[in-house]
């Protein structure tokens, strides 16, 4: 499998290449590029299956490069030292990323994920989506990218009713669509959605408070959503959740 490292720091390229050689034996051919223009040329001539792309380079950004790739035929992993807001944008767009300095375990996981999903025909749309997130948008209109085995979904966050843990998977329920099962655990989505107000009402449930219509005391307590769905409310979280909901209603 072929990988291309695009980064303007020679020392970082060398260290990342060494990590790939030692920890990712599936990668047998590694080439390097030092910027946007050189990177575009290498993508065309080398035709990598995986690209590890720096965010900020001397002749532009990784986003500038990707906007010039019409139909990406590779898996993309951004490598970044960006701040928390930028990381949240990556999470919302479901584009993989690594933080500098690169951790070998995280590198192995990212490469394995890329191998498992070696052709992503929607990458251009995800890049466009990522840039929208980076530029900021009204929280009410925020969207998130969800992937199941066959499809990629671009959904409005406010259309999510609740998320339910299903082992190592998370099942999303919507007000306007069929459920979607995603191969990430609920904890990962809690980190993404909690800053937008979502509530961990139960160890297996993450709920959109904007969709809650009432609290039903029957059977120990249930949150009833605007489509009639009942969502469990853990006893230990009852006081905190009800106080939070009361505060939002004022």
Can you walk through the features of this model?
This protein folds into two domains: 133 residues, Rossmann fold; 91 residues, OB fold (Dihydrolipoamide Acetyltransferase, E2P). 36% of the residues lie in helices and 30% in strands. The protein contains eight helices and 17 strands. A five-stranded parallel sheet has the order 2-1-3-6-7, sandwiched between helices. Strand 1, helix 1 and strand 2 form a beta-alpha-beta unit. The longest helix is centred in the C-terminal third of the chain and has 15 residues.
What is the topology?
Blueprint: E1 2-6, H1 10-23, E2 29-33, H2 36-46, E3 50-54, E4 56-57, E5 60-61, H3 62-66, E6 75-80, H4 84-93, E7 96-99, H5 104-116, H6 123-135, E8 143-147, E9 152-156, E10 160-166, E11 169-174, E12 180-182, H7 186-193, E13 199-202, E14 205-207, E15 212-216, E16 222-225, E17 230-232, H8 235-249
Parallel strand pairs: 1-2, 1-3, 3-6, 6-7
Antiparallel strand pairs: 4-5, 8-9, 10-11, 10-14, 11-12, 13-14, 15-16, 16-17
Helix pairs in contact: 4-6
CATH class of the largest domain: Alpha Beta
| CATH topology grouping of the largest domain | Rossmann fold
Q: Average pLDDT, to the nearest integer? A: 85
The biggest beta sheet reads: 5 strands, parallel
Approximately how much beta-strand content do the residues carry?
25-35%
Query: Terminal Cα separation, in Å?
Result: 57 Å
CATH H-level homologous superfamily name of the largest domain? Response regulator
N-to-C SSE series?
Answer: EHEHEEEHEHEHHEEEEEHEEEEEH
Number of helices: 8
Shape: elongated
| Fraction in helix | 25-40%
Task: Give me the Rg, rounded.
Answer: 21 Å
Tell me what the CATH architecture of the largest domain is: 3-Layer(aba) Sandwich
Widest beta sheet: strand line-up:
2-1-3-6-7
Which spans of ≥5 residues are poorly predicted at pLDDT below 50?
none
